[in-house]
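REQUEST FORM: STRUCTURE PREDICTION
Request ID: SP-0412
Submitted by: Lab K.M.
Chain count: 1
Length (residues): 561
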Amino acid sequence: MSRFAKALRIPKFFEYIRIWVPISLAIGVITGFLMSVFFVLVSYLRAMLFPFPIYLTMILGGVATYLGIKYFGDEVRGSGISHYIAARHGHKEFTLKGGVTKFVTSSIVLGSGCIAGAEGPAMYMGGTIATYMSKNRLKTKESASAIMTLGGAAATAALFQAPLGSTIFAAEIPYRHDMDAPAYTPSFLSAIIGFFTFRYVTRFILGNTPRLVVLHLEEYSETLEGLLFAIIVGLAAGLVGLVFVNVFWFCRKFSEQHIENSVSPVVGTILTGIVVFLIFFMLPEEPPFDWTGFNLLNVLDQQPEFNIVVFSLLIIATILGTSLTIGFGVSGGVFAPALVVGGGVGGIIGLLLDPANVSSYVVLGMSASHTATTKTPIASLVLVIEITGFSTTFLAPIAIANVVAYFVSGNRSLYTGQYEDRTEVFLEEIGEHELLDHFMVKDIMTRNPFFVKPSNPVAVAKQLIIETGKHTIPVIDTDGKVVGIVTPETLQNAPDDFPVTDFLASEFHVIDPSVTLRSLLDFFLKIEEERVVVVDNKGKLLGIVTLRDVIRTTRKAVVLA
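STATUS: Completed
RESULT:
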């Protein structure tokens, strides 16, 4: 083989085609077909129960979840997304029994009108299909995680008719500040196949493929004023999202501590029914739509009586209803509720700031609220654009609203098990390695590091940083003891002729050379730094050790094993 062919990694490319393309196609077709059956079952059941008051029919969802937990296990409980995240990180597994139970139970939950979303069951079922279709084919943890991403992307792409947004969502949801880019290409392929399979099957059965959200949207103003309004929507959605998350976790904790595990879903749906009944009682007349999901948003433009009071009641009912259903263990998701809450927030702001263009603010609020409650800003943007069919010129205002909501809403979400980023996953993996108990800091540290004296001018330290690329330069006295450190940040605005002692870091950390790598890793996590100075018992400089040194040593040991 020529050097050119090797440079192109042609053998690896064909191996990729041979393994991943067939798996992606198969997962996409089967998952898309299953999601279409799921959608049809939910639609028919909802049509059958529609003549009855929704605050009574939703109790069926609680009873179905109770029976699922009692006879088939706790996997059916709550949002399937949390199980998906745990499985992606290797803490749980998908079972065929759990997948079938989730399918049946969630069909009843959503068909009965419970205030719940469909993305949780979809991700669970997609993960189950992908896991069992690829069993005994891909052995590593990384490949198993990627396969689950394929299933999750295909399921949500089919159900929400949003292949790109669903692919990003499946890769983004395991983390709060990161995403799994390596699985993106095959996931996008499976999502597209699932998308088209769902369309053709539902069109064959129902005669068409209905859109989840159909709004009569106007062009959004891209003026400076319009972008300012987007910031306001993001701020409001972030704050409401923060309330949503805290109420949800309060309800979940309360149910776990005070109500028997299998019974809590029934209690939750009864309480939700009471909330919905009271909301209906407070309205001038019973609304001509289903308050449990996207239908409310679909009739927004046709309801002139929508006002701030109605939107406020919508937000309260959805937050309490979701917290009392999913929080109490009812099988479902939070995607639709998060969008509905955001739609209410956007609707209020639209009525106050731009009454002629309320629908656009509803879309802004939907995306910002989903960002605030799930920590998936990129996926939220693309999903809402795809679901609503709004113009891509709307990307900038949505992005602004999402960023604001993301930071305002804090670090918690409606899902359990989300890691900070992929580094946390790797640290967890190497934390289990026995090597960490056998090696010490002195075995991996960089000896005889570069240093400066207290009397050296800043120019010397700056030049040393430039030449060596080091970010931590110890400052030692005449006895060799470390008196501080300087970094590029501390020297950024320092005059070149001043002594380095005037610009020492406010604090620095040292460690003993005999400390084990496990203790060192714990120390890094505690101080939230990536490098530390190694000193002897007299405080004299011995070396510098970094988190990268720990990772490199562990990786090398894993490869050699």
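NOTES: Residues 16-420 form a domain with the Clc chloride channel fold (CATH 1.10.3080.10).
Reviewed by: T.R.
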